[in-house]
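Technical annex B. To support the medicinal chemistry partners, we prepared a structural model of the target in complex with nicotinamide-adenine-dinucleotide, based solely on the information shown next.
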Amino acid sequence: MSETTQKMYIGGHWVPAATGQTREIINPFNQQVIASVAEGDREEARAAIAAARQCFDSGIWSEQSGAARGALLYRLAELIERERESLAVLESLDTGKTVEESRWDMDDIAGIFRYYAGLADKDAGEVIDSPIADSSSRVIREPVGVCGQISPWNYPLLQASWKLAPALAAGCTVVIKPSEITPLTTIRVTELAIEAGFPSGVINTVLGPGVSVGAELAESPDVDLISFTGSLQTGKAIMRAASGNVKKIALELGGKNPNIIFADADLDVAVDYALNGVFFHAGQICSAGTRLLVEASIHDNFVARLKARMEKIRLGDGFAEGTQMGPLISAEHRAKVENYVKIAQEEGAKLELGGKRPDDPELQAGFFYLPTLFTACTNDMRIVQEEVFGPVISIETFSDETEAMNRANSSIYGLAAGFWTRNPDRIHRLSKGLRFGTVWVNDFNVYFTQAPWGGYKQSGLGRELGRSGLEEYTEVKHIFQNHSPKPINWFGI
Ligand code: NAD
């Protein structure tokens, strides 16, 4: 392991992998190596869990006042703001997304730490009106304990912050494992947390593959809660692994998110948001609105406008002025997207645009894929039902509201849905009838820290963000006190 290889942070120490293994981190824009990191294994995961356990049980963090925990979280938010530009650059090098998008991410992330800093001392519990004479009854929330946190590669630090900030505010200790291909900003924020003054053992950062390091977090009897963001398949594996000690589970999984355009919508805005809903970060967004349902009477007009706009999307280096879309994350992921495009054609969808890699010689070293549009899609096609996680839109048509709603709901996923109409009664009916964790009316892909985020059905379990995001990291305790205990003599004297 070279001097420059970045290490894991366990129990207050930076440590290399015991095996000496390292991993090269690649820039998906040009495949250049941008860093070398320690490649941990189960051994490091166990050491990190032990450190988090010891720290939690000591009470050094969990028994601090909420205000004291909040103060450190505020400090961390300030440090993230101080490092906004360098963090954004690191995130874009690691993911290929435009640096402008990464800057927005960093602003969000600082805001998330601030929001939970503010909530840390707000919940003093609840006094219940006890039905028993001369007694009192209180309900309080306590930190759940040691939390394993596993994050994905698409929004590496943003997804990590949705987990870290509420867990720390609640008084938990954590072992965080970023995706093995995008660990750099999580490592950097660990350094900032040390600078902020978090006690040793509160935050432990482990690196390495999901199948070993991640699986150890999910299986360990010393972990009280596992929070995971990633694919449905991995989420199911984590649920199984977590059953050993019936640990609490929070899952943010995939989505296949319908965006429904009614004929009475403002088409200029709807077309614009159809693009925004999909092509940020090349469609690698869990809430991407890649499944468009368009009312039959406006289909041709809508497709023509959408196509014209899609043709103008500028692919390129995320650091170059004017770039609107970067590459996909890896060669393997692009191969997955390409396979879906092939399947869609085999199943009879009509390719209107894209469906291939760009010809531009300057983009050949990156994992680029052109914005792709399919029409003539039907409900049963895999391109309509499965998450592609790339810049690929499928369009279906519908003839009335009920058909649109039933089709949108016919999915194993239930993360987010949007629709466009000016009809107030329809807005009421659809907002209620769509079975999704988030419903956008005349908008798409809006999220903010104050509102809960999570999925119905197989899109997940539990909620992140908002007050719900903090409550995930707490246990509820009822404390009942009898103020004048006397014998009841039920069993005689
Ligand atoms: P992934 O499931 O391949 O990996 C996610 C994380 O899990 C990584 O850190 C990985 O190392 C780890 N992992 C892999 N196998 C594991 C195992 N057996 N046990 C424990 N950990 C394991 O997902 P990905 O490809 O990194 O991310 C893309 C997926 O994430 C998409 O499906 C996307 O929809 C989903 N996602 C969901 C949300 C949301 O809010 N619902 C947000 C972002 C991403």
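Notes passed to the chemistry partners:
The longest strand covers residues 135-143.
The chain has a mean pLDDT of 97.
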